[in-house]
Write a sequence for this structure.
């Protein structure tokens, strides 16, 4: 599939999920992109805090957003949104419910954000954005399903090796303790696994 190449990482990302053989679709995505605004977060700034309503859906142009929950006063990482990905506390954003998780910058971030009213308008009235959203959510559901099955069926070593094979940039960009939590492994065990994998 041909992909529009521009100096705009967000626009290029959107184009990966639509049929860009139709010029009208590219034009619609350019209009959709214009509905988003830039938000800069410094390291340790929150995109949303637990029990607050998430106000935005976002594209991560740079930086890393950590999704986490607190269990018995211990932070557990549930997801890591890297650059060139979209994220939100989705049920909170869509339905106005308090978020069950924190989303925090663990590196300085440049985000493209959109509020709920504008987001719903894009879904309903912009065919290209509707196609993008459907395709990206479908992909995310499949990834989440695989991740949950991996937690139940793979050993910690196998989970680490799979991450190394499928998401090597995570290992380069994300601090060890966040990765260990994401994989359901203690930091000490994670250090041993990494040492043995060298």
């Amino acid at each position: 599939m041909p992909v529009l190449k521009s100096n705009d990482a967000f626009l290029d990302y959107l184009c990966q999920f639509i049929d860009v053989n139709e010029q009208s679709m590219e034009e619609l995505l350019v209009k959709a992109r214009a509905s988003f605004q830039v938000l800069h977060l410094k390291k340790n700034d929150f995109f949303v805090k637990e029990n607050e309503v998430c106000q935005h859906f976002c594209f991560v142009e740079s930086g890393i957003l950590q999704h986490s929950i607190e269990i018995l006063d211990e932070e557990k990482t549930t997801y890591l949104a890297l650059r060139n990905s979209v994220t939100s506390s989705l049920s909170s954003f869509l339905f106005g419910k308090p978020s069950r998780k924190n989303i925090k910058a663990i590196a300085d971030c440049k985000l493209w954000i959109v509020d709920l009213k504008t987001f719903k308008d894009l879904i309903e009235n912009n065919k290209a954005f509707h196609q993008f959203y459907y395709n990206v959510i479908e992909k995310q559901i499949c990834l989440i399903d695989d991740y949950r099955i991996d937690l139940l069926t793979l050993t910690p070593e196998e989970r680490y090796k799979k991450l190394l094979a499928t998401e090597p940039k995570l290992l380069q960009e994300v601090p060890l303790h966040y990765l260990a939590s994401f994989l359901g492994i203690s930091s000490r065990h994670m250090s041993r696994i990494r040492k043995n994998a060298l």
The first helix runs from residue 9 to 15. Residues 1-6 have pLDDT under 50 and may be disordered.
